[in-house]
């Protein structure tokens, strides 16, 4: 079917071997005028090298301060079908487990009341429903909540929809119940999720083990990463089977052929803290030096497993913005059990938010506030004790200072006399 | 108390040149209130329709009703 608008520049994006979003939109455009006008508007934006969207107005459905991103086209005279093109963010189920029935129903709702275009999923994790009109927002919300038991997610200066890895549902390495933690955060902080109150967005992400499949350490303002504090469980018999070529290394991830594992080269030498030893028969791990990097466990999953005294490490301050300023999280709680009812964690979260709300500037992520005011200020506000495990690189982030009031005996310092002896 | 705070916030908004204000800006109108209390009051005002939200998708701001709220996107970052 011939489409209404000529799109020579967009057509370029259909060439090459990779999948093309233009092809996808064209397919929908054959049955949806909204998608057809979207292509025309996009082509015009490429021509003008300027965007033609306006934002604002609507932020949610009745009672909500987030979940909808109001979007309007500034040339409705040319593209009337995208005069409104609002995005709806839908809170995805924890770990993104769906039944096909739910997915079909979701698509049916969107086919009927929206553009038919979806983005599964946005980088926060939400199901992104792209393009609908103002009059459809409430009816869509009604069907989502009543027929599918689904809710809108966060947007704007809200807590954003929390996300997590598959965790214990499918992964033997998970040290914590990632879905339960996500559900707990979602339900306890409904107000923060639906009503903006923060200086900027705030994200929680939970990974079951240090492999960190949701990249919590790189993307979440508060990252919850599963770990253990006892010893890696070793099955020496299975270690010998890997070395003898009876088992496939890396769980088959790098080739499913059986081969003898060069344990010295592929495991021992790659251990970042050099805390392992192989004497030809037995594997020894000095667990006190192990940083739980998961490497050895990833290579020999049948032989090595995380310990049994499990919990999580909490990090704060990561962000991964599109343009610049990416930052990894910093450890603030080296180990917490993370078991229901999560009281200790809630207390920490609420102290952290109180501080950020008071001290954070507009559009400043938590990590930036910490950078500006210092980790010491953050630790004081959240009543956490400084700990060597929080030091990233010695002499690089030395934010741990001694306070004479807290050191037995204390000391005094006369800055004037000091300056006389040491000229600035 | 909350009625008084609401009036202060409204007056503050009317006195500003900018049409869109951040949550932190509104809190300046009620410096004695804790942020969480201020948030409750501000959300009540939104529910009552005395003020309204504006959002770019990444940040949320507050406006007076009746002001044209569909501005050109100031910041397209999500
Ligand atoms: S983060 Fe760990 S527990 Fe979660 S899916 Fe990945 S490997 Fe499994
Ligand atoms: S988990 Fe990493 S640090 Fe710990 S023993 Fe294995 S390779 Fe070494």
Give the key terms.
heterodimer; A: 424 residues; alpha+beta; Alpha-Beta Plaits; Sulfite Reductase Hemoprotein, domain 1; 3 domains; five-stranded mixed β-sheet; four-stranded antiparallel β-sheet; globular; B: 78 residues; Arc Repressor Mutant, subunit A; 3 helices; 44% helix; disordered C terminus
Characterization of this structure:
The complex is a heterodimer of chains A (424) and B (78). Chain A is an alpha+beta fold and 424 residues long. Chain A folds into three domains: 140 residues, Alpha-Beta Plaits, CATH 3.30.70; 143 residues, Sulfite Reductase Hemoprotein, domain 1 (2-Layer Sandwich); 73 residues, Alpha-Beta Plaits (2-Layer Sandwich). In chain A, 32% of the residues lie in helices and 14% in strands. Chain A is built from 15 helices and 15 strands. In chain A, the strands form five sheets. Chain A has a five-stranded mixed sheet with strand order 7-8-9-14-15. Chain A has a four-stranded antiparallel sheet with strand order 2-4-6-5, covered by helices on one side. In chain A, strands 1-3 form a two-stranded antiparallel ribbon. In chain A, a hairpin with a 6-residue loop joins strand 5 and strand 6. In chain A, helix 2 packs across helix 3 and helix 4 packs antiparallel against helix 5. The model of chain A has no long low-confidence stretch (mean pLDDT 94). Chain B has 78 residues and is α+β, with helices and mostly antiparallel strands. Chain B has one domain: Winged helix-like DNA-binding domain superfamily/Winged helix DNA-binding domain (Arc Repressor Mutant, subunit A, Orthogonal Bundle). In chain B, 44% of the residues lie in helices and 14% in strands. Chain B contains three helices and three strands, in the order H-H-H-E-E-E. Chain B has a two-stranded antiparallel sheet. In chain B, a hairpin with a 4-residue loop joins strand 1 and strand 2. In chain B, helix 1 packs across helix 3. The interface between A and B is medium-sized, with 37 and 26 residues. Strand 1 of chain A pairs antiparallel with strand 3 of chain B, so a sheet runs across the interface. Bound molecules: iron/sulfur cluster (2 copies).
């Amino acid at each position: 079917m011939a489409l209404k608008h000529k799109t020579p520049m967009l057509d370029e994006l259909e060439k090459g071997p990779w999948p093309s979003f233009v092809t996808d939109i064209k397919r929908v455009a054959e049955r949806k005028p909204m998608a057809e006008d979207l292509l025309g508007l996009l082509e015009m934006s490429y021509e003008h090298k300027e965007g033609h969207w306006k934002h604002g107005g609507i932020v949610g459905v009745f009672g909500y301060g987030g979940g909808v991103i109001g979007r309007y086209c500034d040339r409705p005279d040319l593209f009337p079908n995208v005069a409104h093109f609002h995005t709806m963010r839908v809170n995805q189920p924890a770990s993104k487990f769906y039944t096909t029935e739910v997915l079909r129903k979701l698509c049916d709702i969107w086919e009927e009341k929206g553009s038919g275009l979806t983005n599964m999923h946005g980088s926060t994790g939400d199901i992104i429903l792209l393009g609908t009109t103002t009059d459809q927002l409430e009816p869509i919300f009604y069907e989502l909540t009543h027929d599918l038991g689904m809710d809108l997610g966060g947007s704007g200066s809200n807590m954003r929809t929390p996300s997590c890895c598959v965790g214990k549902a499918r992964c033997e390495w998970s040290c914590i119940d990632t879905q339960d933690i996500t559900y707990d955060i979602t339900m306890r902080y409904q107000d923060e999720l639906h009503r903006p109150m923060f200086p900027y967005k705030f994200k929680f992400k939970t990974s079951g083990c240090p492999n960190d499949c949701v990249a919590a350490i790189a993307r979440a303002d508060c990252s919850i990463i599963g770990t253990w504090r006892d010893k890696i469980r070793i099955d020496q018999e299975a270690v010998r089977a890997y070395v003898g070529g009876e088992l496939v290394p890396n769980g088959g991830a790098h080739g499913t052929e059986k081969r003898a594992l060069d344990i010295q080269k592929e495991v021992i030498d790659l251990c970042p803290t050099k805390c392992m030893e192989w004497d030809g028969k037995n594997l020894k791990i000095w667990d006190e030096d192990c940083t739980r990097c998961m490497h050895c466990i990833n290579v020999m999953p049948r032989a090595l497993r995380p310990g049994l005294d499990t919990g999580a490490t909490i990090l704060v301050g990561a962000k991964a913005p599109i343009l610049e300023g990416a930052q990894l999280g910093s450890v603030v709680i080296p180990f917490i059990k993370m078991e229901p009812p999560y009281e200790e964690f809630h207390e920490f979260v609420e102290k952290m938010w109180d501080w950020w709300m008071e001290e954070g500037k507009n559009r400043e992520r938590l990590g930036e506030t910490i950078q500006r005011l210092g980790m010491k200020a953050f630790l004081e506000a959240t009543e956490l004790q400084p700990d060597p495990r929080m030091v990233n690189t010695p002499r690089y982030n030395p934010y741990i200072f001694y306070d004479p009031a807290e050191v037995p005996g204390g000391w005094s310092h006369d800055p004037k006399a000091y300056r006389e002896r040491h000229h600035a | 108390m909350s009625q008084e705070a609401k009036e202060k916030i409204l007056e503050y908004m009317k006195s500003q040149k900018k049409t869109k204000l951040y949550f932190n800006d509104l809190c300046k109108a009620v410096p004695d209130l804790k942020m969480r209390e201020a948030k409750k009051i501000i959300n009540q005002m939104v529910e009552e329709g005395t003020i309204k939200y504006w959002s770019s998708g990444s940040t949320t701001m507050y406006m007076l009703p009746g002001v044209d709220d569909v501005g050109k996107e100031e910041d397209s970052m999500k």
